[in-house]
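Before anything else, study the sequence and fold tokens given here and see whether the fold suits the sequence. Record follows:
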Amino acid sequence: MWTYYEPLHVVTYFHPRARAAFEAVGLRGYWRGYFAGRAAPLGATGPAPVVATFFSFAPAMVERALPAVWQLASPEEALRARLTGAVQALAELTYELPEEHLVEAADLLEAAAGAVEPGGRVLGAANAALALAEYPLARLWQAATTLREHRGDGHVAALVAAGLDPVETLAFKIADGMAPIMLTGRGWTEEQWHAARDRLVGRGWLTPEGKPSEAGRAGFRAVEEATDAAAAHPWRALGAERVARLRELLDPLARRCHTVIPPGNPIGLPTLLTEA
């Protein structure tokens, strides 16, 4: 299901209307909008909770953005901007779809998001606690955001349980074919990357040539399986029949959203959706 709802959320990172909405409230530059918009459900927080919950960013990069962004826009303004920009982006991408299609999809995705378990899920819980949106596209985006942050919280927990720190996680994924922008775009230095790579070689997750070993692949598969298991409750609550219907409804939305997501994107979304 992640491959169907994540594209709805990530228009907030890749669509020009989303960036324009952040700029309209004073958050100029990509990373100001990113950190303010994504952290806003936590309130006017400093860098420490964001370093912990976002996980993959170098602390120095987070500290350059927070708490300074709150001098430019309040969390409430950032929340309004992120929803406005996302809805405008989705409206441009999905204008051909009938209203009843969007309403039914919003009803089902909102029902799934309403079943997220808040315990231990800081970003998921903070997004779930926001007031429900009124219009279908806003409801869709907010529900997708709650579900992706809930899943992300579980993924961070699985990585920590596997003994992986943020830069080791990125170094392994890059060795496994992910775009290097995941490392450079999150503020880690070459020195930090090389040290992380050496640690992965030392624990047997990478070969001396820097390629994923069988042990490394198995270890990361276990992380992904733990992530999926931790994210399963909303879909069990929704039930197989409604999940299948939601997948059918989200497919054309997700495919339209993929048109603005660049290949080799730093989120790891597959270019094409696979058939379930």
